[in-house]
Give the backbone structure.
Amino acid sequence: MIEQSKEQMEKNIKEFMKKHGPEGFLKLYLTEYLSQLVLSELRSKHNDLKKIDQDLGYIYHFEGKKIHSIKDDKEFRERTQGLCKEKANLILTRLKDDKKFTYLFENDASKLVLDNKELETMFIAKMHEIITELSESDEESG
Amino acid sequence: MADKAIRICLPKLPDGINKAPIYYGISLGARFLIDTNNHGLDVALKNTSKRVVKEVVISEIVESTWDTLEEQVTERGVGRPLMGYAEGAYKSTMTRILNEGADAL
């Protein structure tokens, strides 16, 4: 990371917003959030299964008795990030379809405050609904 | 393996208040970017960071804005690991945008 001047940072933000808008930020943020969640869970997860070679935490680090190479690790992270990006896009599409959340995609910061409990509660409920739908859809597709 | 991981992890995202960090990160990040776009970086920092940003560098901007948010929400009882994911996602995303501009996406 090369450190930027204040003027350059401001210019970078304006260029980003001009090209991608608030939706661009949402895409990046949700992708990153899901990636962190999945990778963190994988690194620490232990299944209830008795067989160690079916434990997700074990599989994340090892193949057979050999530890994964850095190259394998990198490819796995990139593949996971790609899948998380697809999920993030699906979540955003659902959010956009609901008029209650139009404000998240507009260039107006007035509703983006932390003390609006009503908006916060609505968002949490919507995320739960979307993730449940996506999970059920994943199960059906096998 | 990656497909399986997402299918297993996504539905396990806890319900209720523990989904709130996703919203906190979105609100803070979007607000900061919109304020900068409309009014400049100084105004955005004034609106999103309680402490005075001594040195306007990427790491300081990202840290100070997140710290302010965490102070505001800490009493709401959200589990630490889930705040951690939101924090990591926010800092990583904002750093990329501040550093790369439109090429961040």
In short: Chain A touches chain B through 62 residues (CB under 8 Å).
